[in-house]
Fold these 3 entries.
Entry 1:
Amino acid sequence: MANNQNENKNQLQIQLRPEVADGKYSNLAMIGHGPNEFLMDFIFAAPGMPQAPVVSRIIMSPENAKQLMFALTDNIKKYEAQFGEIKPRNAKAGVN
């Protein structure tokens, strides 16, 4: 029983605030980095519009960015196993 109590103390309780729950749609990402962080801007580019707003900016340590890469790779493999290969269009993510 004591072991279960220790496990519960180590669990992270994730909170999803209502103002964040709806999410933001992004169809373009710009990624930059320095020695201590990765900066990811998620952008919504609407067809025919001259400006594209940044809808979210995420700043991560290099270690966390690499963990995100592993998680995305794993989830894309699982998605493709279930729904078929994702075939990229001519869109490309920006890299600075």
Entry 2:
Amino acid sequence: MDSNQACFRRGIRDGMPIALGYFAVAFTLGIAAKNAGFSAVQAMVESLTNNASAGEYAVFSLAAAGAGYWEVAVMTLVANARYLLMSCSLSQKLPPDTPLHHRMLVAFDVTDEIFGISIAFPGRLNPWYTYGAVTVAIPGWGLGTLFGVMVGNVLPMRLVSALSVGLYGMFLAIIVPPARKDRVVLALVLLSFAASLAAARWSLLAGISSGIKTILLTVVISLLAAILFPLKDPEGGAAA
């Protein structure tokens, strides 16, 4: 296993593209924050402590509407609920003897992209790899929000829209390599896309938030994948 320093440097290297994508996408968050009455510093602090686009949009939208603290807390929990599943998955990726404080630090910044590169780490996950990625990713998100408040409304709307698409392209760049190497992963990715589209258009699920739909689909597809295509423990133990 690589040393902690080597894993940390590798995490920084893999996290740099994520940081650049976060910086671009967070511009739109900054515009939403400014429209909700947040100052540049307030918006940046919010992004540094809540690194989640859907959750932050919910916060800024509710704040602009004059919602109470409990409403904001509940909506943020619903919008970010999928990270609970990601944290559970990462906890099993970590070595069994990983101390609690390392588990809590890794869980602090479980975003879609950080989760993607962390879960793809070969073998057991060294927490220092995730720390390296987070070290550059969180400042990218916070600074993007800061500059979004300061100059976001000056930029052309076409440019802002183009920046917001960048994160999706970056996420595709994370899932495409493993999908090309493993046909099972490719099939599951395509199944997830199709199921997400169906769930978004199915009228019976119209009253359910996108966050809850994501959780339901993740549980069902992951359960089927675990039953049909079980993976062996990276250290040669029983199948997970």
Entry 3:
Amino acid sequence: MKRLLALICVLCCLTGCAGAEKKEWTEEEWESVVMALASDEAEPVPEKWRASFLSGWLPAAEKGFINVLLISSDAPDIDQNFGRADAILVCRIDLWTGETRLLSLPEDALVTLPEAPEPIALRYVNCFGGAGLTARCVNDALHLGVSHFCAVNIEAFIAIVDALGGVTMELTEGEAEALGLAKGAQRLTGEQALRYVKLRRTGDGSTRVRALLSAVLRETTAGGSVKQVLGLADLLLPCVDTNLTTDDIVDLIFALFGQNHPISFDAMGLAAADGGLNADLAAQSREFLYGGK
């Protein structure tokens, strides 16, 4: 037992050293990464330069609640989730009442990454260390307690939306014309939903991704039995990158479906005028998510 405790202590020390180590970039290396981030490269940050995500970077789960960062990214393979984030939301779920709050974060807000020589857009953090590192940066910038993450790539929306039997979206005239559909509320298939979020040049693409994520959450919890939802979870889990455990998912399902009152989805978007996530936005986000606690 003493040997085991000693080994654990050594591993903890080594882990702490690894977390404290800082990557030193040359000017040429950083310029090449900045250019790649602005390109269409699938994984713009080379593997040797990515930050190692350590589970200890995220706080312990809050009793009675699950605070999870939701990300959609352009990663071609969700098992290698180092693409740019298209949408970033903080979801707080009360496991006793099922109340759910969604906080939408500005993907282009500048944040400080210890490994980077200058501030970078929040949407690029995922390229350096995946969804876990993004959650850490969000916690640092807004003083939140996000303990979990769940990332999905855009292509996985086809499987998700089709598994739900489609999703209803309110289309603008421009969106409807681009999709070959009528303006207003339309039931989209998975393929149509994918085309919808990829309409980058007919408005704000990130707003569409956030709208679709919210709609999928609504559709998922709008009806059906717990057994049906468990079956849906089995189908979707291979499509996501998450640190949610099976027990976490079961807790979520019973929280969302075990209540007699409708689920309340409140969404607030943050916009940083100075380009960053400042103290005022941090206070607003905590007030919204935690109710001033």
